[in-house]
Write a structure and sequence with these properties.
This protein has about 525 residues and is α/β, with parallel strands linked by helices. It has 17 helices and 19 strands.
Length: about 525
């Protein structure tokens, strides 16, 4: 139901009203809706003003709805200024906590005035905070973070958005972490998990998840800030850590995971590196992790090194099946992703072996988006082993040459049992209709086909910029796959209908056979029936 339906439901009776008002006001996006609830206001230029100061009656009406708000999201719009309205609310409020049941606050801002007013909505029961860091020109950033710690000391998750380098705010972040002892999850921009910050996080008793996000919204740091990664771990470090993401060289990650008190019980590890590494180094890393981190179920390795204008294939630096064989030694690994500028050098026979020996696999992204795109070892036949041997597979990413001349017969194909996403990255498709026809025999309904690259969404600027010829080739390859994506759902539906008709016909045939057998048995009984009269 949409919001209009909920509003209509609220008018039915008091019981329905309470239920639907809880739904309507549970999440509030933006301040306009909340402020209008308190008192009408008008816009003069870019500034907003109440038509009069809120009084106790206004606050009594406001509180009836404010108590229902659980999530508040605000993103500053430079064309609108709410500071005057927020100041009036702060001066006239009848209780300290304006949204007493708020558990999630998202406050994304650009200037100091907007930053300071975020604390109006913080209180002891707030559990999740998504917030911008103080502007760079705001020299002393520690006091604001200390204020956050005093007002909302029991936060469980912190998502910090920072549009500048960590070196300008690292001290303040350390103070913030020390003041939030109940934290379970932290999200920072890329290049913010420095040795000092990771060392501080290791001393926190409840941290489950340490991760970073890519992209402009989260903020871009500088690779040089994590050029060395040597956190100091003490006894009892990371007692409950499950999910860890780091940007570091492979040798630094290996050293970190081999030290005393390393978080070897993690279940998810994301490794991001912008330094060139040989396949042998990746192999050694996988061997070490398979021996040290026996509980690992998800592993992501992003080898993001590439230099614009220097994308020439070096066969000796390609990842091979032998590089990846340690993956089969992990007892619980069900998710693996690797990204590299060169395509993985793996044969159809090796794909068959990988799928056959990994039946528990749930997600595999085998470098489907290399930037060197003219060397293929796989075609559409590479999908078949995973459909046959991996019944739990939900996501699959492969770099393939989808050529009609190499499409195998479809009579005995076993479709994927659980596939939701098939990613082809920078793969090539020659005949969209033929490719879609083949894939319709394998892909289940609602399986999404993903095309394109993610290289431009992470890392420093030099990594996000691709050569013109690379971008042109990616664009050219996108069009045929777009046609496949458009045709595929229709063909999948047709295949489903064919299977249903075939199944119904088979059931009808079986029913006729059963009836015929019963009739024959009855005829046979009558033929042998006799009666003797003495």
């Amino acid at each position: 139901m949409d919001e209009d339906d909920h509003v209509n439901n609220a008018c039915v009776c008091k019981q329905w009203s309470d239920i639907t008002l809880d739904i309507i006001w549970r999440e509030v996006d933006g301040l306009s809706r909340l402020l209008t609830l308190l008192r009408p206001y008008k816009l003069k230029g870019r500034y907003n003003f109440f038509d009069g100061l809120p009084d106790s009656r206004d606050w009594a009406r406001f509180q009836k709805y404010a108590n229902r708000v659980r999530i508040l999201r605000f993103q500053q719009d430079n064309d609108l200024d709410y500071s005057g309205l927020l100041d009036d609310m702060a001066r006239t409020r009848t209780s300290l906590d304006m949204l007493p049941n708020l558990h999630t606050l998202e406050w994304v801002y650009e200037d100091v005035d907007c930053m300071e007013r975020a604390t109006l909505f913080m209180h002891q029961r707030l559990r999740h905070l998504i917030i911008s860091a103080p502007p760079l020109r705001y020299k002393d950033k520690v006091p604001f973070f200390l204020d956050v710690c005093v007002r909302a000391p029991h936060l469980h998750s912190l998502d910090l958005r920072v549009p500048y380098r960590v070196q300008y705010i690292e001290t303040a972040i350390l103070e913030l972490l020390r003041g939030l002892p109940d934290l379970k999850k932290v999200i920072f921009p890329e290049f913010f998990l420095t040795a000092n910050i990771v060392s501080e996080l290791s001393r926190m008793k409840h941290i489950h998840i340490v991760q970073f996000e890519h992209g402009h919204e989260q903020g871009y740091g500088e690779e040089k800030d994590v050029d060395t990664f040597e956190p100091v771990l003490e006894q009892g470090a990371f007692p409950v850590l499950r999910d860890l993401a780091v940007t570091a060289r492979i040798e630094d990650v290996m050293r970190f995971m081999n030290v005393d008190f390393a978080p070897i019980n993690i279940t998810s590890l994301y490794i991001n590196t912008y330094v060139e590494h040989k396949p042998a180094e990746l192999h050694t890393l996988l061997v070490m992790l398979s021996e040290r981190c026996c509980r690992l179920s998800e592993l992501y390795v992003l080898l993001a090194h590439h230099i614009t204008g220097e994308l020439e294939l070096v066969p000796a630096n390609q990842i091979t099946f032998n590089t990846l064989t340690p993956l089969l030694s992990f007892p619980d690994l069900v998710t693996f992703q690797v990204t590299h500028k060169y395509p993985v050098k793996i044969t159809l026979e090796e794909i068959e072996e990988l799928a056959c020996r990994w039946p528990s696999l749930e997600s595999l992204a085998l470098n489907e988006e290399p930037l060197v795109m003219n060397k293929f070892t796989l075609d559409l036949r590479a999908l078949i082993p995973f459909a046959r041997h991996c019944p739990k597979l939900r996501r699959l990413g492969l770099f393939i040459d989808a050529c009609p001349t190499k499409i195998p017969p479809t009579l005995e194909l076993k479709p994927f049992a659980a596939l939701c996403f098939l990613s082809v990255g920078t793969s090539r498709a020659h005949d969209p209709e033929a490719v879609a026809a083949f894939m319709s025999h394998l892909c289940p309904p609602r399986c999404e086909l993903e095309v394109g690259v993610t290289w431009t969404s992470f890392g420093i600027r030099s990594c996000r910029v691709l050569d013109d010829d690379v971008r042109m080739e990616i664009s050219n390859r996108f069009q045929p796959w777009k046609s496949v994506r458009d045709i595929l759902p229709v063909l999948i539906q047709l295949r489903m209908e064919e299977r249903e008709k075939s199944r119904a016909l088979q059931e009808e045939v079986e029913d006729l056979r059963t009836r015929t057998r019963l009739l024959m048995d009855k005829v046979d009984i009558k033929a042998h029936d006799s009666c003797i009269i003495v």
